[in-house]
Design a protein that fits this description.
Layout lengths: L6 H4 L5 H10 L12 H17 L9 H12 L1 H6 L17 H11 L3 H27 L1 H12 L2 H6 L6 H21 L2 H18 L7 H11 L4 H19 L1 H8 L16 H8 L68 H5 L45 H4 L1 H7 L3 H14 L8 H22 L12 H21 L8 H17 L9 H22 E3 L17 E3 L6 H25 L34 H13 L8 E2 L2 H11 L4 E2 L12 H9 L5 E5 L21 H12 L1 E3 L15 E5 L2
Parallel strand pairs: 3-4, 3-5
Antiparallel strand pairs: 1-2, 5-7, 6-7
Helix pairs in contact: 3-7, 3-8, 4-6, 4-26, 6-7, 7-8, 7-10, 8-21, 10-11, 10-12, 11-13, 12-20, 19-20, 19-21, 19-22, 20-21, 22-23, 22-24, 23-24
Length: about 775
């Protein structure tokens, strides 16, 4: 990154320090080393970002699997520390939940509401925009910095993502802050900011694990090539910063590893209760090659996640499809079924192991949607999702999906041509510079960031568009740098081919935009005519202006491309309107290049196009969906009656009740923060509680009630004996079978609920 010369570097104004001090007291005034328009423009962009991200904050909804954990973390500091799913901290999320720490703190302060969970992401988005300006301003000047900040703000996937409670917002902010600290280090060879860069990457790891490391090659190459110290010291600095990064990244893994297992929650997503297996296997390398890291819960037959029957909320639709038979509806309860060896079908409605926790469940009054139905297809508009199981997204397995799949390109890819040209042109222009050339170092860092991220995203299947957000800072920086460099080159060129790169790139961007927008003419029918007309006006205006404007002074007498200002202009001849015409051409070109992402991003002001807490997506729906979950965190009337019955008869039990899946437990945790014991983890196969441990809890009076999904009301008929389960059957199946055969089924009428016998049920059992 560049540490280019700025106005303050050469200023002879004696009161510059006083001006800077005064500007700090007035946040709307630019510092003395920036143009007077820079700070007001930046504040305007930040205000736009805040407006976009917070506009629908009260309707932002819940990503129910994560919101259950956030609620638990507001109740228990132990659950907060270990990022546990339940208040009693018996099982973690199936990933590091550091992204929930700000959400849980916000909910502790403001109460458990959707907007309280979303508020930290709105703040993270505005911080990312402000830091983006600072990074690019140091590299290419204030104009490029503003353009980069605006581009990040108006990236469709970011406009949706920062407006919902999801994990990707925190990692984008952390990576942007890491780039900011790296930039300070690479220009000055100072170790301290480089170590802070490692710190921010480590914090990003707590938010989304290995995705935060995706920029490490970019920072490593940039510093190793361009830092103004000898190679030995460069390597030493990188090792020190890497140690900080690893220490912070692995701090949660180390805490889980060295804490005795009986003093911490079980690690979901694993078969061996290992945080390392969960982070680097289940959520890491095993996504590329199942079984690569032992101990990860890759599901039966080597199919990652197939034991759970559905995609994780964070984007694991490629981890397997739904298995097992449907839940039984209301009416007479059917007995368990299974085989003598291997995993067996659960008792009716048992979520663990076969069908997984994503099954739609209803309360005893059959009125509550299950909190995590994995779906495809656009939302029905009322918060409920289609029952169709999510399959991998269209084109999600192809290497060219970022260029060819409309699901992705309209969210991140509008500026691909401009960013690519900016990268190539910048590297060519600075190819002969010294090793420490900071302008070239910036292109190198952003280029490696873009290539690494695009390569990783292209190499595996994913359904959740929020993954694309890690591309946004690099695209914004390179697009801004390319635009400013093209304009500077155009207005300083006297004649010949140098006059035509800017118009050519505008035409190429317009053509790419028209290609992408042609599939969405119903959404923005005005877009293609506007882009076409703006591109034509830009080419004509720039061509006419170039005829009458030439550079003042010999070539190269202005500041470098890395500086905050371009060379001066002098108008000659009778056509003195050339400068204004050129600026008009530039503005028209910007309309042609940036109109489409702007339109898509501004569409989030309409709730229909704003995405959801499960899926970051701006603009028209393109056949995606996800677990809607309950929009209300209040219990239904029937659930309140059930809970009242349990509490009247629960004595001094430690757990309110056990639930055969996290989705069955979710309403009681979200609404009341109750110590419900969820079994099976996200996939339904986690061994967080074994049958022996479950029996011990019942025997000691620590657990008296069990809630199973999918069983009909008690009928008084004799109950068949459950079949024997194989030794490899999931523990949840074994526990459900034991509950079904041993415990007393409580008829809903006992606690004042009548049932219609329609749809899946929740059935209460008393075990002690």
């Amino acid at each position: 990154m560049a540490t280019s010369t700025t106005e303050s570097d050469t200023s002879t104004v004696p009161d510059s320090d006083a001006r800077l001090s005064r500007s700090r007291r007035h946040v709307w005034r630019s510092p003395s080393d920036q143009p007077v328009w820079a700070r007001p423009a930046l504040l305007g962009i930040a205000a736009l970002a805040a407006l976009l991200y917070a506009w629908n904050i009260t309707e932002s909804g819940y990503a129910s699997y994560y919101s259950v954990a956030a609620r638990s973390m507001t109740v228990s500091w132990k659950a907060f520390l270990f990022t546990a799913l339940d208040p009693s901290a018996t099982i973690t999320l199936d990933k590091i939940g550091g992204f929930l720490w700000p959400q849980a703190l916000s909910a502790r302060v403001f109460g458990f509401h959707a907007w309280a969970l979303t508020l930290p992401q709105c703040v993270e988005g505005v911080v990312s925009v402000l830091v983006m300006y600072r990074v690019v301003r140091r590299w290419q000047g204030p104009a490029a910095g503003l353009l980069a900040a605006g581009s990040l703000t108006l990236t469709p996937v970011a406009a949706s993502m920062f407006g919902h409670a999801m994990l990707d917002g925190m990692v984008v902010m952390c990576l942007t802050l890491a780039a900011d600290q790296y930039q300070k280090a690479v220009g000055t060879a100072r170790l301290r900011p480089l170590m802070f860069s490692g710190l921010w990457i480590g914090l990003g790891f707590q938010a989304k694990m290995m995705e935060a490391w995706i920029i490490v090659p970019a920072l490593l190459v940039g510093y190793l090539v361009a830092a103004p110290i000898d190679l030995r010291r460069r390597a030493g600095h990188l090792l020190a910063a890497g140690a900080v990064m690893l220490a912070v990244s692995l701090s949660w893994v180390a805490m889980m590893t060295f804490t005795p297992q009986d003093a911490r929650p079980y690690v979901d997503g694993t078969t061996n209760n290992s945080a390392f297996s969960m982070v680097f296997g289940y959520n890491g390398f095993n996504r590329f090659e199942p079984g690569l890291i032992s101990g990860a819960d890759d599901g039966p037959s080597g199919d990652p996640g197939s034991g759970g029957g559905g995609p994780a909320p964070e984007g694991r639709s490629d981890r397997g499809e739904e298995g097992g038979g449907p839940n039984s509806g209301g009416g007479e309860a059917a007995p368990p079924s299974g085989t003598a060896s291997g995993p067996a079908a659960p008792p009716p409605g048992a979520a663990g192991g076969s069908r997984g926790p994503n099954t739609a469940t209803q309360g005893p009054d059959q009125a509550t949607q299950g909190p995590d139905q994995a779906t495809r297809g656009p939302s029905t508009g009322d918060g409920d999702a289609s029952p169709e199981t999510v399959a991998p997204a269209p084109g999600s397995g192809g290497w060219l999906k970022l260029l060819r799949d409309d699901l992705y390109t309209v969210q991140i890819g509008w500026l691909f041509p401009l960013a690519l040209f900016g990268l190539i042109a910048g590297l060519i222009r600075h190819r002969s510079g010294p090793r420490t050339d900071q302008a070239r170092a910036g292109y190198l860092m952003w280029g490696v960031w873009l290539a690494m991220t695009a390569g990783v995203l292209s190499s595996f299947s994913f359904a959740h568009i929020a993954y694309l957000a890690s591309l946004a800072p690099a695209i914004a920086a390179l697009s801004a740098a390319g635009t400013v460099a093209l304009w500077r080159a155009h207005r300083t060129a006297s004649a010949g081919w140098r006059l035509w790169p800017l118009p050519a790139v505008i035409v190429a961007e317009a053509a790419w935009t028209i290609h992408l927008a042609s599939d969405h003419t119903d959404f923005a029918p005005w877009l293609i005519p506007v882009v076409s007309a703006a591109a034509l006006i830009a080419v004509v205006a720039l061509g006419l202006a170039a005829r009458d404007v030439r550079i003042g002074g010999p070539r190269g007498d202005g500041p470098s491309e890395g500086g905050p200002q371009a060379g001066g202009l002098r108008v000659t001849g009778p056509y003195v309107g050339g400068v204004g015409l050129g600026v008009a051409g530039l503005l028209a070109g910007c309309v042609a290049m940036f109109a489409a992402p702007t339109a898509w991003s501004l569409s989030v002001l309409d709730e229909r196009y704003a995405g959801s807490a499960f899926e970051a997506h701006a603009g028209p729906p393109v056949g995606i969906g996800g677990p809607g979950g309950p929009e209300s965190t209040s219990l239904t009337a029937a659930q309140r009656r059930l809970l009242a019955y349990v509490e009247r008869n629960n004595g001094d039990a430690e757990f309110t009740l056990s639930a055969d899946s996290w989705s069955t437990a979710a309403p009681f945790i979200q609404a009341e923060g109750l110590p419900v014991l969820p079994l099976g983890g996200y996939s339904g196969t986690a061994r967080s509680v074994t049958l022996a441990e479950y029996k011990h809890l019942v025997a000691k009076g620590r657990l008296r009630f069990a809630l199973l999904s999918g069983l009909g009301p008690a009928t008084g008929d004799p109950r068949p004996d459950p079949p024997a389960l194989g030794k490899d059957a999931p523990e949840t199946l074994k526990i459900n079978s034991w509950v079904y055969s041993t415990c007393t089924e409580i008829a809903p009428r006992t606690y004042g609920v009548t049932t219609s016998g329609k749809g899946p049920m929740l059935t209460l059992f008393r075990c002690a």
